[in-house]
């Protein structure tokens, strides 16, 4: 948090709005800092106030403008476009979003362009490869990668050498600058360092197609406004909803033509002297009355507009954010766009376990509230099979919907999921759903058998099982990583003397770990908690030996600071705050410590809990450990979990013991 005093006042207002006792403000702020460590004030604000205003201009990405113009030019020429996606839920949904959008968007130009898609099938490696370029030589002039491409130097080079331009949209780590020499444009928050490194691949794809829509309808919109900077009044030009600041002298010397200008009326007298040489000025702090007829009071001023979107005045780029928010909320074309695709993006925030902050929280809440009423018949059908339309939880989406979307890719039949999502009629949708359901049952059986088989080897770190299907490898590494605090690397058959690996580190940075030894890999990519690679078989023994010699503690996440709150205090005073913060990723949830006496312990099937100060506290620790500590005062480290309360017929927050230490 950069401006503590500003944020403190904002946070007080948020607490009051949500019925939270301001007497716990100090401790609540400590919890907030614990949860959102490393995020900006703006990101924290929109995590607590998720709304359409959390979406920022897509043109903060450095290559966005050239990528958008290239795409539109390709459509106008009637040249074919290939979308290359990935086999997991994020890659599938990103492919669907871009494909669906472009099929509709090209009609605005009456374009004859074909919008093709390709995803990895059978035992193909992750990402776009050189042989994929061969498939489409002479057929397409532009390739758009989604949720992959940032590591595909060889494939992108080959495309460029054969006259095919590549626009990369990805969210994986940018670790080889060579890719920039060959790609026409790269849209990846981890390359541009513009924030938003928490976006999923579909989130990046969402921003790309939003940029296309904004350019088409508002590419010529240019607005100027006054801004005070260290006692001087400067001018800010807003183009593509991104501001560039100029002094009056720069404006005059560059010969800019100002077509609309607004400022706070209270500053008008100070401005008159400065603006006399600039030319005709339209004072717009009777703000956009002739442009935006959506407001009942056309003479709404700037401060009223800010209040409309509940954006705090200390936020940077507030004018640009308001301008975009007005368009997204009140322009029917843009609002329908956001309403259609944001619930799908929210699914991928969950499937890729991206931080649920800022617009990601808006996306996830859109998923929970709107997914059953999706614009897409296939998505509505999927929800009707898995979800209770009245009460949908993040847990339901993670445990039911997302595994189903992942299934075809895991089983080497990725395109079946795209065919389902793109289905044009109920018969086609039902048929595809039936096919995927059969694959799902097969996948569950295979994975359960393999997990049982490999469980005893989980502490080996590197598990080589060459019979494993490539699509199953990442699922195995994910499942097995839940049983250890070490990284898990599962390696399987890759064909042609190659091996394929998937790595997970639930509480550590497995990408950085493997990046240190990436000379063993033919292909490598990923992000903090998950990575994948291809390697030559003859390097396996040396690779295993090197990995086992690594000190994994150097790559482990820092344990969150513990906040001292008793079980009774938590259950009595902090549940409303927790509900405000949720949904959160498990690793983002705050951790607490307290010294308590365990009064009782009960176990009913999977339900295990202790009684502390007369409150029910969930616990997954071994039963003998719990019983050994009955009626003793012990140090308890705990977080919380949502669990169904039969008496209330709803899920509520329970504290959950993570560890017990003797005094």
Verbal overview:
The protein is α/β, with parallel strands linked by helices. It contains 25 helices and 20 strands. Among the domains are: 62-193, inorganic pyrophosphatase (n-terminal core); 222-304, no CATH class; 461-555, Diaminopimelate Epimerase, Chain A, domain 1 (Roll), CATH 3.10.310.30; 562-662, OB fold (Dihydrolipoamide Acetyltransferase, E2P) (Beta Barrel), CATH 2.40.50.460. It has a five-stranded parallel β-sheet, sandwiched between helices. A five-stranded mixed β-sheet has the order 10-11-12-14-13. Helix 4 packs across helix 10, helix 17 packs across helix 20 (426-454) and helix 19 (414-421) packs antiparallel against helix 20 (426-454).
Task: Spell out the key features of this protein.
Diaminopimelate Epimerase, Chain A, domain 1; inorganic pyrophosphatase (n-terminal core); 5-stranded parallel sheet; 663 residues; 43% helix; globular
